Amino acid sequence: MTLLAYERYCDEILVQTDLLGALVKDADLTRRVPSCPDWNLRELVVHVGDAHRWAGEMVRSRAAEELPEDQVAGAGGPAGADAAALAGWLTAGAAAAVDALREAGPDTEVWTWGWEHRTAFWARRMAHETVVHRADAALATGTAFEVAPDLAADTITEWLEIVAFVQSKGDPEAAELRGGGRSLHLHATDVPAAEWLIDFGEDAFTWRHSHEKATVALRGPLTELMLAFNRRQKPDEGGLEVLGDRGLLDFWLDRSSFG
After folding, report:
1. Which segments constitute the Mycothiol-dependent maleylpyruvate isomerase metal-binding domain (predicted)?
2. What is the helix, strand, coil percentage profile of the chain, to 5?
3. What pTM was computed for the model?
4. Direct distance between the N- and C-terminal alpha carbons of the chain, in angstroms, rounded to an integer
5. I need a surface site. Which of 42, 106, 142, 188 has the fewest CB within 10 A?
6. Which domains, ranges and CATH numbers included, belong to the chain?
7. How far is CA 79 from the centre of its chain?
């Protein structure tokens, strides 16, 4: 399972945003989001739309340092409770961000909070940010959620890279994801080669694509696996099964709950 093409990430920002906008344009914006219990639907959409605008402005301005959010035009969404207006604001922000990404290309240097400082980081990050929060909206509205297998797989891979990066920067929760002799296997049963093995080393964890026996395995359909690994549903929902030490899986999920 490899990285997707830069243009694919740009396309998916638009596609996933359109799908998210369609979910909320006729919805009750005060409905709570069960997978993000501090937010209602309006707050969820504003979070995504603000992220698009923030990342897009950093790319557009070729920012060398983090851009303060209060300097981003249009942040916060439209006033009032008009769901259609909010959906329109959301898709407009995504389109502007993608225009900036496409104009810049994948290799332009720009500030990021992560492990690479080029525009490719933001294209991938915004694609997956939108995918996961579309899942939140689907859960809140009782709507079926589907995503292309390669995109779902890359969402898992990117999250592993984020957790590893945060651990390397000394995050106290992520720092606990270590301890030799234990491992976690993620196994998608409906997509060939969609497997990840996480090894808990003495000082940090590492991961690789592999099919090996582990201390605990989480297996089932890839989309459901992605949702559970991103803490959008419980590991025993959606046709998933846990084999082995469930406590180790819970340990991982509890300590990778930032972001």
Report:
1. 16-138
2. 50, 10, 40
3. 0.96
4. 24
5. 142
6. 6-145 (1.20.120), 171-255 (3.30.1050.10)
7. 27
